[in-house]
């Protein structure tokens, strides 16, 4: 029986693949993905006139009422098609294109859609607006005419034959063909009960029109249980429903179905409170999601450590929360008092000396940095000194030849002056730092060692410095761990706090950088260096994932520079080149390709950054 079921499933899967391939109008061998081209298309879109606050994102497939062939109806394909549109915040392009039999044509189609969207405006009529935008683009850039004509010729060969359609559908098809060949030549389009076969060269209306009942999952606080970076289908359509749950009611009980006393377990499990591992896959397959506003209190009296630890084991809060702004790139403004930042001090951290395994490295660093403890500076026009001040002597000689002889020193003397410098180091202690670098070390252990050796070096050097760790749990709680302030000494108490750091939560960089800017801005030193030590890009459970977090961090870095600070990022993320140049500038970060070398590399980087 089991063998027959397995055979039936195997035959069914083979049949499904066969019929789907035969019925699909796409060309899988020439298919390309949006992801590796997303950055280049976004640059092209903005460079050609697209809005600077709009990005390029993947679009979900759309429902169109098409007349399908018998084979397509049997296979169940062509119900949804990949289309492109602009929703006011992003240019939505298909996540995968295989509409042409050549890879070059599909790549050219991506570029054409980005160019067309850069010259598009609000859509009032799908056919007339796309013609007008196409005509405007071709008139402004005549070199695109041949590329556009190549796309049109290739697409017209794939469109259905009007002779095989009903009169209304055939009239609409002929009008669309004419509009593609000669943009602007068709002002009226015949009506048809069924939609025309998709036009991949045109933009379609947004998925959510203003006032539509569908919600937008991208900005909703109720996200899918999918790890960051694994959602492939882009935006989903959502609707809200109100659940009318009736408490009580008529209950019919059959006595023979009751548990005995020995079988009864007093455990409330009215609804399952465990995560469904298939939820992300199911949501990815669905075209429309229905959200309920009913919030269920889950859990059956079990004592668990959830997102936040219990108060008796959590770190000690210092003072009231601090309200900070956050940058919203979609509106182009700072949202005042949007983030709540809370200072913490590690709980139950005993004073500890420097670990024995780090003491040899600390001694080497002390010897190397001892010579930088004080800068030597030449003072000019001194009454006595070890060198003659030639410029002062020349001025004296010229003045004497003109009958003027002002008293001035003619020597140069070397004096020792204290380094006029302050540094604040922000260390990322989010849950990603709990990952293993190798069989022996975790990221958090390397960060602890880096902070310890950095503190040993700067305490020897005599520079003012402060040490903080940061993490976050949505905008309501950005956690800043106070390890050492500018006014505190670096001693065994600070070393104990550093060794007591534990990873947790997420990485809301913008708020941490803004608070560090405030703390560093109060210093009286002439040069102020803000160092950020991290293992990845900004992220959090809410909107902070993706472009939102990157844009907010970039704006926070710009605010720090406007206040005269020098922000610099040190990372061990090998993909940092994809986002750090945009946030910190091409010269504003350093990638440590061997993370285990970070404790020794960090003081050396500090030396390079603070050289006069």
UniProtKB/TrEMBL annotation:
SMART domains: VWA (SM00327)
Protein origin, superkingdom: Bacteria
Name of one Pfam family that matches: VWA
Residue ranges, annotated region (Disordered): 210-240
Limits of the VWFA domain: 420-609
Protein's name in the database: VWA domain-containing protein
Organism for this UniProt entry: Pseudomonas alkylphenolica
